[in-house]
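I am sending you the entry underneath: sequence plus fold tokens. Let me know what the token row says about the fold:
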Amino acid sequence: MISPVSTPSHPPARLYDRFRRPLPPRAVAATAPPPDGGMRPFTPDELEWAWEAWCAQSPVLADALLVLARTGLRWAELRALRVGDVDADVESALVARSAPEPEPAGPLSPDRVRRVPLAPRIRGAVAREVAGRDADELLFTTALGEQLNRTPVLSRVRWSQTARGRRLTDLRHTAASLWLAEGVDAATVRHWLGERRLAA
């Protein structure tokens, strides 16, 4: 099992009050949503700033959102992800189910089933969620062990302030953007996203 040292520990909430800690310089000029409703992936600096702000509200939900941004999972796929979907070395996860709200989880179509890599940045967070739990348990849940629901999650992390005009789906675009920047070829990115083609 990967040691949590590969992921920064959760910061004290008081250090990341949004009125005390400014956005990174490159993020200041891009706080409004694009006029055409287009994609707005986070830059690495913006993602870290947002994660810190989310941690001030809920460390577990902050990690769940960070996993979305580094795996490209759809929200419904994250809701259905189970402990047993993560491989023993916490290096990849099988994406085979989806749970669109308010429907129960069901299997993905065969062309969307895939195994996605877990970047070193999120392995510690995933390892913490896996540790000591049964394979059929949901990987990320509320503090009461219930399945995540979009509206209360976004409210809890103050998404409207901390995401700076972005949509939840921009976390998925963030994963694609980071992979491409790291030199991953477009066909592999498309496969990891479970898409037939990449958006222009």
The beta strands are 92-95, 97-98, 106-107, 114-117. The longest helix spans residues 59-71. The CA atoms of residues 176 and 182 lie 10 Å apart.
